[in-house]
Amino acid sequence: MAEQKVIVVGGGLAGLMATLRIVEKGYKVDLFSLVPVKRSHSLCAQGGINAALDTKGEGDSTWQHFYDTIYGGDFLADQTPVKGMCDNAPGIIYLYDRMGVVFSRTPEGLLDLRLFGGVKKRRTAFAGGTTGQQLLYGLDSQVRKFEALGLVTKYEGWEFLSAVIDEQGICRGIIAQDLSSMEIHSFPADAVVLATGGAGMIYGRSTNSIICTGAAAGRVYQQGVEFANGEFVQFHPTGMLGDDKTRLMSEASRGEGGRVWTYKDGKPWYFLEEWYPAYGNLVPRDIASRAIYKVCVEMGLGIDGKNQVYLDLTHKDPEFLTNRLGGILEIYQQFTGEDPRKVPMKIFPAPHYFMGGIYVDWNHMTGIPGLFAAGECDYMYHGANRLGANSLLSASYSGYVVGPKIIEYIKGLDKSAADIPQHIFEQEKQRQIEIDEAVYKMDGNEDPFLLHEELGDNMMTNVGVVRYNKNLELADAKIQELMERYKNIKLSDTGRWANQTVMFVKQLWHMLELARVIALGALNRNESRGAHYKPDFPERNDEEWLKTTRARWTPDGPKFSYSDVDVSLIEPVKRRYDVAGGGK
Amino acid sequence: MPEYIHLKIKRQDGPKEPSRWEEFKIPYKPNMNVVSVLMELRKNPTNAHGQKTTPVVWDCTCLEEVCGACTMLINGKARQACSALIDQLEQPIKLAPLTKFPVIRDLQVDRQVMFEHLKKVKAWVNIDGAFDLGRGPRLSEHDRKVAYQLSRCMTCGCCMEACPNVNSKSDFMGAAPLAQVRLFNIHPLGKMDKNQRLDAIMTKGGITDCGNSQNCVMACPKNVPLTTSIADLNRQTTLYSFARFFNR
Lengths: 584, 248
Hints:
Chain A has three domains: about 5-230 and about 355-420, 3-Layer(bba) Sandwich (FAD/NAD(P)-binding domain), CATH 3.50.50.60; about 235-350, Alpha-Beta Complex (Flavocytochrome C3, Chain A, domain 1); about 425-535, Up-down Bundle (Methane Monooxygenase Hydroxylase, Chain G, domain 1), CATH 1.20.58. Chain A is about 35% helix and about 15% strand. Chain A has helices at about 15-25, 60-70, 80-100, 130-150, 215-220, 250-255, 270-275, 285-300, 320-335, 390-410, 420-440, 450-460, 470-485, 500-525, 540-545; strands at about 5-10, 30-35, 50, 115, 125, 150-155, 160-165, 170-180, 185-190, 190-195, 225-230, 235-240, 245-250, 260-265, 265-270, 310, 345-355, 355-360, 370-375, 545-550, 560-565. In chain A, the strands form five sheets. Chain A has a six-stranded antiparallel β-sheet. A five-stranded parallel β-sheet of chain A has the order 6-2-1-10-19. In chain A, a hairpin with a 6-residue loop joins strand 20 and strand 21 (about 560-565). In chain A, helix 1 (about 15-25) packs parallel to helix 10 (about 390-410), helix 2 crosses helix 3 (about 80-100) and helix 3 (about 80-100) crosses helix 10. The longest helix of chain A is centred in the last third of the chain and has 25 residues, at about 500-525. In chain B, helix 5 packs antiparallel against helix 6 (about 195-200) and helix 5 (about 175-185) crosses helix 8 (about 225-245). Chain B has two domains: about 5-110, Beta-grasp domain (Ubiquitin-like (UB roll), Roll); about 110-245, Alpha-helical ferredoxin (Fumarate Reductase Iron-sulfur Protein, Chain B, domain 2), CATH 1.10.1060. By secondary structure, chain B is of the alpha+beta class. Chain B is elongated, with a radius of gyration of 21 Å. In chain B, a hairpin with a 6-residue loop joins strand 1 (about 5-10) and strand 2 (about 20-25). The termini of chain B are far apart. In chain B, about 50% of the residues are buried.
């Protein structure tokens, strides 16, 4: 058999960790990324990464981390893989430490830990206020070492267009497009892993980078891969609204003592502390987002009558703040001109993280053999709501797991990608060239960027923090309308070199496809669980809905099926944060 | 309040194409930045003379000034477009691509050379493998502080753009990769390969090509102590040269 090779799509934490775990066993990796991997979206994560290191004398344990994660996710996550993640977390942090990641330290030179939402013990390791950046740079440096050795070949500035699937239904490579020359090529591989991140762009403005369109997931979804739990979208309670994006203010600001308040009857009202005395400002994100939404939208008590409340750090020592939260306070100051050490910050919930994603088995393989998914683009670790500082962990851990699993898989193959007839690749490549050419010919009167704005507004209004079936039906009708109007796009740039508009038009279609999965998934699920909240169905309904949502693409829209959740380790209980011991 | 935001953008259709300036007027809104203006512009790409044109091509990713992608010349200064607030800029706002890197299209440039430099200086810790070997080495708060300042470099290229010694006639790698050598030479495990990194910067294009103009440290948006780092590496390379000489 010819030399075997793996393709990794995406150069954030999951993709780079997977790459490392594969190349260090001597296999070659072709690494595809829209941007130089050192600019991947993982670097936007601020507050930290969870691991029960138990270095604060608080008796923390990996079991407690596991319990908090399952409970925080409202019991929708499969428990066995989550336990694997929490058990491996300390080892992964130590691995990053050895790579030279500049974690913040205790006076003894050990890794410092801070408090995050939905937990009672300090469990979050961090690097100032730029933890994601530092972890990404650590992995980036390690992958560069293997690039210098010739084991990793980077394709930076390339976009994944589709998986190449042979007659037996096995993934044998990918089709990708060079974003400068616009050329479309096929790349054979014995296994492919998508580590392509979230899809915040579906909501127009979110805390995500503009490359987080979900297009890669949307593409394989249309090739037959299932998309799971799409309706579970996390709104981060503390975003700062901007014209171009909603910038994130880390949960670490509350972990370090930040308080959320607004005025009621002329006096500061710390509503989270009043409503949730057991956890106060550190309730999980879904709870905090709903509370802020309620205060602003339903009670009309936002600051200056607008949809915003205060996040206040001004009672803390400025030097302490600079040391522990430096990077994020700089961002706030830079973009608003106000110093959060002196003036409370104004914040409102913003779309932030997709708990749902590509459906995979516990080895991270999709329904198409040879095609794997890891990181935010998979659905596996967070159930109905993700706890803060668990995303850097799940991205790292899923890459950590998928690497060895891929090697196991390709060792069991009876023929290599090199033995696959050329016409299999040629056929898929031609299909992609035709799609590309069709976009070049678009000459209607709709603007793709305006259509995207309408999509974002629609999702924000109708598929947001609080959901009503009537609005969800409207949302889906609107998406279908946009899909019709999409066919009437006018292309404003027909150039054959570095044409960003053509790429955006193609991504937009996949955003629309996934938007339907989100809206209809939400419409179907008549209960409230984690980030999915319906006032008309305010309770969690385990009897009917303790189920993973699985959407399969059909020409007539998504077709849904539901499968059981693994609850083999912890019996589901009612989730509450107003009393101590709710989380055990 | 001004009615329009007036922009002059240097356009170029491809690496070998000639460049030209194109003017734009965008309706004013408060609190905009250069990226949000460019986004506004692409929705209806029409220049100031009312002629249809193509959307301006530029790179951007995070929009929070941590990824470094959207670096360009804004009124002559290399900086990130996302954090360049319109209300603080003199108009007409002139946008041009960085000059020390090949232009791909419009404001988009190819900074691959910066990543090549990181390869050259071996900017990594040589760990045995990506598996669990238990706790890493301890690091003092002092070393942590120095290292963190250096590790926030986002490879944006402002320091290279500002450096007179980085030009088409020189191979100088600029300040960014040098600061990374200092970073990895601080780490308790990284230190073990300290001399290999010093070897790498003691060749052509390395530390001796620095002309000490000190522009880099002024240009760095993340306040990475670049000149201090170069001075520190000068000490390291000198000591290393002596040691090498006497241990021959």
